[in-house]
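Can't paste images in this forum, so I'm doing it all in text. The chain is below; anyone willing to post the predicted structure tokens underneath?
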Amino acid sequence: MRFFLFLFVAIFLPFLGCKPPQKKKVDPIIQGVKGLVTALTGNQMPRIGAPPSVPQPYPTTVFFYEPTDITRTHQWNQGPLFTNIYTKLIATVNTDSTGAFIAKLPVGTYSVFVQAGQQFYANSFDIRNNINLVTVDKGKLTEMNIEVNYTSTN
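Text version of the structure:
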């Protein structure tokens, strides 16, 4: 009898302590920035009989900084690439394989850069030379699509 009781405990006790895996509850992001990062490369001049180029997904990392003007960066060769940004980094998010991203952010205004090799890319400036600004409003997802086109020609 002891043998059967021992056998029962030895076989079934490990299974009694196992719980089924719990699904992690993920809160949906309802405030921040969402968008798509794409790349446009090559010759962009219109050609007779040739369809226009289609932007391709650009998997990368998206960086959200405090509002940054051009004097608070180190710009590479006066183009859309930057080697250093001297303002506070607020958040980073990776895109998926299609270039889609979503970032949960507090209300505010941010400069947005994407990783391009070992540098940061942004090609939008306002009248005060603030770089690639986006504003997040309370309870809203702001849509921002970014086209990386520093290798295309016109």
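The chain has a mean pLDDT of 85. Residues 39 and 134 are 20 Å apart (CA to CA).
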